[in-house]
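Much of the work behind modern protein science is quiet bookkeeping, done one molecule at a time. The protein below has been through that process, and both of its lines are reproduced in full.
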Amino acid sequence: MSATRNSQPQPAERVGAAPKGPPQKGDEGPGFQQLFHAWLESHRASLVDSLRRLARQPIGSFFTCLVMAIALSLPMGLSLLLNNVERLAGSWQRAAQISLYLHMETGETEGQRLRDEIAGMLDVAEAEWINRERALAEFQQDSGLGQALKELPDNPLPGVILVTPAEIDRAKLEALRTRLAELPGVQQAQLDLVWVERLGAILKLGERFIFGLTLLLVLALLLVIGNTIRLHIENRRNEIEVIKLVGGTDGYVRRPFLYMGALYGVGAGLLSWLVLAYGLHWLNDAVTRLAGLYGSDFALTGVPVGDGFSLLLGAVLLGYIGAWLAVARHLSELAPR
C-alpha cells in the first residue's frame, strides 16, 4: 500500500509534462544581428529587383532620365553662366569701388600709410594705392590723349586710393564713403550709387529668375517621376495585392519603388552633369575666340566638382521624393480585393 502510494504522481506534477529547467537558447526571439541582416537582405533584394526592372526597359528608362537631366541642367547652367559673367566683370564689389582723390602734395609714403589704414577697416575688402605717375600713365593710355598730356608742364592728376567694399548695400556704402571722406589727406571721395543700384537690381532679377525657374522645374520633375512610378505600380498591381494579402507591410511594398525613384535620380544627375560639362566646353570655343579679338584670355570654367555632386544629390532626392509621393497616393488603392 505504501509502495503504491509512492508510485503515483505527485499533485504538483502534470503527467507527460516536460521537466522544469532554465529556458533554452532556441526559445528566445531573433537577435539584433539576425534582424539587421534580414533588414539588409530585404533592401538588397529590393535594389536588385529595381535594377532588373529598369534594365528590362533600357530605352524608356534612358529617356526618362534624359528628360529629368535636361530639366536639371537649365537652372544649374544659368547659374554657372552667371558666375562666369561675374568673373568676367572682375567682381561685383569692384564695380562699386570708392575712389579717394588725395591732395596734390600727398607723397608716396603718406599714400601707402593711408592705404594700409583703410585696408584694415571691417567694411573694406581691398584697397589699392595709385600714385600720380601711374595715374597719369593709365589716363594717357585709356584716353588716347597721350601727346596732348605730354605738353603739360606738370602732372595734373592726384594720387588715388581705390577702395573695394566688402558688401554691396546702398546705406552701408554711403556710410563708408562719408567715413573715408573725413580721413586726413582725402580731398574727395567719389561713389557712383546709381550704378550700384542698377547692379543690385540686375543681380536680384537674375537670382529671382533662376529661383523661379528652379521651382517650376522641380515641380515638373516631381510630376515626371511620379507619373513614371505610377505606371510601374499599375503594371505590378496584381503582384502587390498578393503581397498585401499574405501579410506584406506597406513599407515592404513601398521599398522597391523608392529605390527605383532614387535610381532614376542617379541616372538623371549623371546625365545632367555630362550635359553641362559638354555644353560649357562646346560654348567655350566661341567665347575664347571672341575674347581673343578683344585681347583677353577669358575662358569659361567647367562644372566644379562640388556643384556636380550637389546636382547629383539633388537629383537623387527629387527621385526619392517623387516616388514616395506617388506610392503614398496609390498605396491605399492597392488593398487586396
About this structure: Strands lie at 98-102, 124-130, 160-165, 186-190. Residues 36-90+199-334 form one domain. The chain has two domains: 36-90+199-334, 97-191. Residues 1-21 have pLDDT under 50 and may be disordered.
